[in-house]
User: Fold these one by one.
Assistant:
Number 1:
Amino acid sequence: MRLYVGIDGGQSSTTALIGDEAGRVLGSGLAGPCNHAAASEGRRKFVTSMADSLSQAAESAGLTGPEVFEAACLGLSGGPDDKEALAKEMIRAERYLVTHDAHIALAGATGGEPGIIVIAGTGSIAFGRNAAGVTARAGGWGYVFGDEGGAFDLVRQALRAILRNEEGWGPRTALRDAMLEATGARDGNQLLHRFYTDEYPRDRVAGWANLIDEAARAGDTVAGDILGSAAQALATMTAAVRRQLFGSGEPVDVRYSGGVFGSDPLLARFRMLVELEEGTRVSAPQHNAAEGALLEAYRIGGARARLLNIS
């Protein structure tokens, strides 16, 4: 039996899937994050997460010994540069594809077909591939220099609005009371200084993005403007990728992923803006990123399998 493995190695967790050549997912495993491997501590976490997720997947698949996979695809947060050699030491396969997480997210979202994935979680990126296999990206440059429309950026814009209001050059906004109540801060200045400390890592700050959605739904104009600007930024990134890969009016499958798209107002505006381009249609993903990694393993291994038993 020919076996294939797909791995989604992210900032919060690592998921491994083992499948057969018919497209049946035989086993899965879940472990901790593996997004850094350069420093000694990052290397240890990477090795542990990879080993744990693979051993769990092998056990649930009923495999009893070290396997040589027909193909292995690993989509790794932060890219493969500091991880590829180490990953190949840990997984025995005839063919490898070690790539970034947006690549496997696209493969899962479109079922391996051409299209564009727009991811807006803590950060943001748009990534696409056309029928010729050419790829392009926009965004994904991190919270300092990019990630427009991501959750961290939404909270950053909210804090800026709060500070402008407190300084007398911005309108009143319900975001002030909501953010101060959620964090226990006295005012915007104290909240700003807290956000610069180790107690408030990027993911924790991004977790308050839902407050902006709640305020916008309640009619707060400032919050609504923030969501509208985020949708515009994400739509602009999508258009940039589309122009690089697809012709004018050509049908393009655009999928979205990430917690930011849980905001109905933001998603509705994003969909409207993207679908202004003739032939472009926006929809939810078919499969998740780990399933996308397995589909890519099938592709590079020459199997024309479709996933059969995904719950």
Note: Residues 270 and 276 are 10 Å apart (CA to CA).
Number 2:
Amino acid sequence: MELFKIGFLSVGLADIIDIVLVSFIFYRLYQAMRGTIAIQIFAGLLLILIFSFVAQALNLKAMSWFLRTLTDIWVIAFIILFQPELRRLLVLVSRNPVVRLFVKVNADESIDEIVAAVTELSKKKIGALIVLVRASGIRMAVETGTKLDAQLSRSLLVSIFNPRSPLHDGAVVVKDKVVEAARCTLPLSNLSAWEGQLLGTRHRAGLGISEQADVIVVIVSEETGMVSIAENGTLHRGLTPAVLRKELKARFTIPADRSPAAIWRLVKANS
């Protein structure tokens, strides 16, 4: 359906939708890569693509071939060199609340057990690192540890992080009601301080995995007993048991109302 014309070009409804979708994708790409070196390479690749379109429109065959070849090389280099940024982009997509509406997350019944264990560990100043998987698994991290596949319980978590336990050094990965593995090694964040305070290895590991996967990480400081949550590369510190329970339930609760109107309200709230 033609809406209007610009010179000899006719613009229809499908063209407008196409332009809006492409613009939105480029905008989200820019948001995900802003502040990284990848944005500079992305801008260079975009410039070459524009030159390539202009060369094709002017029927410059040699220049079109040269720019097309260069674009292919840059795309491959972009994927190889900036794999972390691209992986983070995919993680951002999976973190979208609309995506989670169609992903079953059954962690609500486990939250009380986790809060009870964290409260006991905090009082005893026993360090802990608990990774709660949300939408997608972290198989690579699980494979670095000792596989358990055990029923989640307060006593199990407390036993694992007991300093005399051979499994206490590392992270515990929890999915739904199951402790998948213990003594797991997590990637460290590049951040060495947060709000002016130096971060230890446990907090850097919690931040690191939260930057790369759709997870919630509960951290108990061995020095102070302070409880923190890491999510999406952000650290929330000094949580009480009540606040911890509230925050976990808020992050793992799936709305019962999945009507189009409810989905649209969720998108607007998180945009």
Note: The chain has eleven helices and eleven strands.
